């Protein structure tokens, strides 16, 4: 019995009803959304978007890591995207978890201390979003003038709050 039986069945049903074979790989809204992996966030639905309209880059905390920068560079320079949204959210695990506890949990489960892993935890949410926007705004591999927004999604109300609107410069 596969550990993935449920999702394979879901895939079969999706394939049976599939109707998106004609989509372009270029995001039609010319938008990339960086957000958290939190299950309560549906990045396309939040903005009234559908499949084919935006790139979505996700990690724990919606942090601007080197790998997110790598994908942003491709999105903007190769795939015709012109707008970058960085969307943090309320009640984020990356802001609630403490590094000591996380390292202890990993060590207890695996026998190995992840001392060499940068978890990009959030000490202070307002500061963290500002830092992430600054990393994007000042990235030398993104064209000057690319629009950048820093948003916070409220997981209890579905509302998006605009904290930053700026341009790569
Ligand atoms: Zn989160």
Short description:
The protein has 169 residues and is of the alpha/beta class.
Task: Please give a structural write-up.
The chain is α/β, with parallel strands linked by helices and 169 residues long. It has a single domain, classed as Carbonic anhydrase (Beta-carbonic Anhydrase, Chain A). 34% of the residues lie in helices and 20% in strands. The protein has six helices and five strands. It has a five-stranded mixed beta sheet. Strand 4 and strand 5 (160-167) form a beta hairpin. The longest helix has 13 residues, at 66-78. The mean pLDDT is 97. Zinc ion is lined by residues 36, 38, 61, 89, 92-94.
Keywords:
34% helix, Beta-carbonic Anhydrase, Chain A, 6 helices, 169 residues, binds zinc ion, single chain, globular, 5-stranded mixed beta sheet, alpha/beta
């Amino acid at each position: 019995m596969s550990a993935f039986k449920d999702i394979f069945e879901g895939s079969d049903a999706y394939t049976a009803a599939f109707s998106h074979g004609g989509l372009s790989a270029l995001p039609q809204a010319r938008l990339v959304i960086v957000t958290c992996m939190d299950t309560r966030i549906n990045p396309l639905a939040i903005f009234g978007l559908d499949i084919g309209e935006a790139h979505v880059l996700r990690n724990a905390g919606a942090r601007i890591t080197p790998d997110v920068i790598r994908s942003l560079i491709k999105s903007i320079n190769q795939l015709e995207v012109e707008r970058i949204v960085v969307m943090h959210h309320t009640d984020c695990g990356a802001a609630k978890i403490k590094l000591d506890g996380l390292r202890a949990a990993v060590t207890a489960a695996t026998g190995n201390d992840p001392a060499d892993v940068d978890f990009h935890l959030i000490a202070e949410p307002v500061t963290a979003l500002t830092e992430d926007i600054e990393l994007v705004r000042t990235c030398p591999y993104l064209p000057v003038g690319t629009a950048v927004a820093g948003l916070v999604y409220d997981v209890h109300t579905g509302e998006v709050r605009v904290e930053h609107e700026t341009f790569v410069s």
